[in-house]
Design goal:
With 318 residues, the chain is of the alpha/beta class. The protein has one domain: Rossmann fold, CATH 3.40.50. Helix content is 35%, strand content 18%. It contains 12 helices and 12 strands. The strands form 3 sheets. Strands 4-3-2-7-10-11-1-12 form an 8-stranded mixed beta sheet, with helices on both faces. Strands 5-6 form a two-stranded antiparallel sheet. Strands 8-9 form a two-stranded antiparallel sheet. The two termini are 22 Å apart.
Length: 318
Amino acid sequence: MNRVILVDAKGMAVENSVVNKLQRLIQESGAADDLSEGMRVAIKVNTSEAGYEYGLRPVFIRAVTDVARDASKTRPTICDGLRLVDYWQKANANNFLNLAREKGYSNDTLGGNFVVIGGFSGDEGELYSCELPDSELGGVEVGTAVCRSDALWVLSHVTLHPLFGLSAALLNGGFDCLVARAKSRVLRGVDPYPFNGQRPPLEKLRAFQRRALESHLGVRAAMDGRIFYVNYLWDVTPQPEYFPFSGEPVTGNLGFLASRDPVALDAATFDLIRESHSFAKTGVDSVREIGEVDFAKVLKDAETMGVGCAGGALRRLS
């Protein structure tokens, strides 16, 4: 059974700050034990669009990159991908990096080399098999910042997602690691920005979800399984970070979780959100009412496809 470790957001103090909690989480998980001197570590993050106001503070990422750097004796590569729709004329690489810097994401604040995941064009990648006999995609192009590294740490700012249910380890460690044209192929026929409330037909929605899970297998193949995941349950908004606006968080800050199994991690994350008092009192017992997606089915699909196992043992740290 795969282990999920949770450190909650309680008992904050000078000696028990967010940075202390995150670094303890990484140390207790043993993630750094897989790293050795000279290894190239890619750290996938979520940078927010202009207009989205709840992005993670850079120090929340720096706390983790410092651990990776100390273990590998090498500055990690910190990366995210270009936006698919250019709402603010900031989607090309220059403007994307400038916007990220405006949000406080720079080499100095993050403690590594901040780059576009698919190179300066956004489409620099290598093709990897999805490793399924009945795969619809066959293979996916994984961004060079990821596939040319020796290990991948996926740091996910958890939010709800209108198409996938939850934006967390499964989506960020798969679909979000692809080059732009590969993302378009996974999205085929589905608008990632359903601002008008018109959702795609259920058949198309489920097809997108399966393709997104296939892409996760492609990323795993690219990294030969050397992937570690951290979910930040902090400012969990109804919209993902690539939206040009953000509603208020749907729950209080619940802490941080880590695992080597993205399915176990997202399942534990989903349960914590649903069980939280502030979320439950709204009368919403799943993300379906907000995102109109049954995330439990997505988790089941992920298990069936061999992405991971939802039955991970949860270990709590204070």
